[in-house]
Sequence to fold (297 residues):
Amino acid sequence: MRDNGSVTSATRQPEPPAAAVRPRLIATDLDGTLLRDDKSVSPRTVDALAAAEEAGIEVFFVTGRPARWMDVVSDHVHGHGLAICGNGAAVVDLHDGAGAHRFVKIRELARPNALDAVRLLREAAPGTVYAVEQTYGFYQEPDYPKLHLEIPDSLAPAEELLAPDGPAAGEPVLKILAFHPEMDPDAFLTLAGLAIGDRANVTRSSPSALLELSGPGVSKASTLALCCAERGISHEEVVAFGDMPNDIEMLTWAGRSYAMGNAHPDVIAAASGRTVANDDDGVAVVIERLLAEGVRS
Fold:
C-alpha cells in the first residue's frame, strides 16, 4: 500500500539507558555493514541472524538498495523476510525468494516534488546528472555514468522521465539518484540539502558524489519507526547497525546503535557504540555478545 500520511518521528527522546532494555528488533544496513566488501554474507553472520530470530528478535534489512537488488539476502532471512528498501521508500516481503518480492508499503516521491528537486539542484550544481528509481523500473539520463549493475529501461532527460506522460508514468517514483563528476561528496550533500529544502529528503550512501533523493520525511529511520509502531516495538528495543550518512538518522533513533569499523566519521559520531569492520563480521560480533548477555530472558 502507499503511505502518504504523517511520518512517525525519528528523533530519539530521552529515555532510561538502552542497555537495560531487552532488544526486540535488529535493523541492519547491507552494503558496508552486513555484507562483506565482496557482497557476500559470511557463514558467521548467517548463523548470528538465525540465532537472533530463534531468541525472538526480529531482523530487518534496511538499505538504500532497490527491491530488485534484494536477492543477495533472500536466502538468509530465516522465515521473517521483510526489508526496508530505497532508504525507506518501500517495504518488501522476501518470503517467496529471489525474484518474487512483494511490496507491502510504498512511500513515493511525488513527481512535482521530484521535478522541483531536479531543477533546484541543476541550478545549484551545474553538471549534475540523474537517474530515476521506480518500483519496477530504472531510468537515467544519457550522461549518467555506469554506476549500477543493470541496463536502464530508458534514456532521457530527468524532466522527461518525471513528466506526467513520461515512461511508466503510473508507477511510483521511489527515489532519484543525483551524481556530480567533480564535487566533493560531503560538499555535494550539504549543497543539495540547502538547495532542495523540503521538496525531498537528501542523503548519500556512496563514497562518490552520488546523492539519493526520497520523498519529504522519507528515510530509513522514519520507515523503520512506522514498522516498529505497527508491531508495538519502541525505539529503545531496537539495535541498529550502519556505516554511511544515510544510516545516521536510524542510528540516532534506535535505542542501541553501532557504527562499523569502516564507517564514515559522521556515522561513528552519531552511533552509541562501535563494532569492527564489515569484513570482520562486525554485526555478528555484536549479535553474539547480545545473545551471550542473556537477551533470551
